[in-house]
């Protein structure tokens, strides 16, 4: 017999994973302010540049709400998820990460939120349900996103001067991810050079063989080099998978692809040197290798 986990099981698995990763989180000024907002308001939106720590912040706050106030935390992706898992008289906190797109705004997602707006507002009016979302800065400023008034009413910009991570906090973050000898090699100027410092530490932890000083001085050089190498390979499928992943806002699946015109992919395949008849499923599989 094949066991298919329920949605609730999957939420619990996701939270278990996030709780384990939360061990590397360093509490910041933003955490206390956002936590207070979640308790006082129905919806709290966290915005900021990519890699600045939006996801880790909302997960940390959510876990804190669960432990301290008994919230049932539910990770979701759409208004339909909220409607499906809403339970009257239950204290619930719904989390949505990268709402309405990652690289560009997802118009269909915006349309879905508009369609379900009144239902979501009725759910939130019970005062037992809270919603905390993260959104990239460029998505938040899109005029389509600004139509979603319940998302834009209360927001906190982690990229703002108010929440900018100090050198002291950044050093604490580095020590959570890196061995102390590597931390000591990070130049003071490099420590404050990039907003994405938390992400840089996380990525370095997964690839500790690279030169730590050079990496924190300019991390983009390392990834541009890897992308160039990927592009130069005779088998273009991995490079194509990366390209499609970006074009699909960080969500690539066979079901997603099946709703897109075949000619759209054929033109991309031809442009990067793949056979126009390449099965799209072959490209999707490259993300797992």
UniProtKB/TrEMBL annotation:
<protein>
    <recommendedName>
        <fullName>Novel STAND NTPase 3 domain-containing protein</fullName>
    </recommendedName>
</protein>
<dbReference type="InterPro" id="IPR049050">
    <property type="entry name" value="nSTAND3"/>
</dbReference>
<dbReference type="InterPro" id="IPR027417">
    <property type="entry name" value="P-loop_NTPase"/>
</dbReference>
<feature type="domain" description="Novel STAND NTPase 3">
    <location>
        <begin position="25"/>
        <end position="171"/>
    </location>
</feature>
<dbReference type="Pfam" id="PF20720">
    <property type="entry name" value="nSTAND3"/>
</dbReference>
């Amino acid at each position: 017999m094949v066991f298919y986990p329920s949605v609730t099981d999957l939420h619990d698995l996701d939270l278990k994973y996030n709780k384990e990763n939360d061990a590397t989180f360093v509490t910041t000024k933003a955490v206390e302010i956002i936590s207070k907002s979640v308790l006082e308001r129905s919806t709290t939106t966290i915005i900021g540049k990519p890699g600045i720590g939006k996801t880790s912040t909302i997960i940390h706050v959510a876990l804190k709400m669960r432990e301290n106030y008994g919230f049932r935390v539910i990770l979701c992706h759409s208004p339909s998820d909220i409607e499906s898992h809403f339970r009257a008289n239950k204290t619930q906190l719904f989390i949505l990460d990268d709402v309405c797109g990652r690289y560009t705004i997802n118009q269909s997602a915006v349309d879905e939120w508009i369609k379900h707006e009144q239902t979501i507002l009725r759910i939130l009016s019970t005062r037992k349900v809270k919603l905390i979302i993260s959104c990239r800065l460029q998505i938040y400023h899109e005029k389509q996103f600004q139509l979603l008034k319940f998302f834009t009413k209360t927001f906190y910009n982690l990229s703002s001067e108010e929440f900018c991570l100090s050198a002291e906090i950044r050093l604490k973050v580095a020590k959570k991810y890196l061995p102390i000898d590597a931390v000591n090699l990070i130049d003071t100027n490099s420590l404050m050079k990039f907003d994405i410092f938390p992400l840089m530490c996380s990525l370095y932890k997964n690839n500790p063989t690279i030169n730590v000083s050079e990496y924190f001085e300019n991390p983009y050089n390392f990834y541009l080099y890897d992308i160039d190498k990927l592009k130069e390979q005779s088998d273009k499928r991995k490079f194509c998978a990366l390209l499609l992943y970006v074009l699909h806002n960080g969500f690539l699946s066979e079901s997603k692809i099946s709703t897109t015109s075949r000619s759209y992919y054929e033109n991309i395949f031809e442009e990067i040197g793949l056979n126009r008849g390449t099965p799209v499923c072959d490209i999707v599989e490259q993300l797992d290798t």
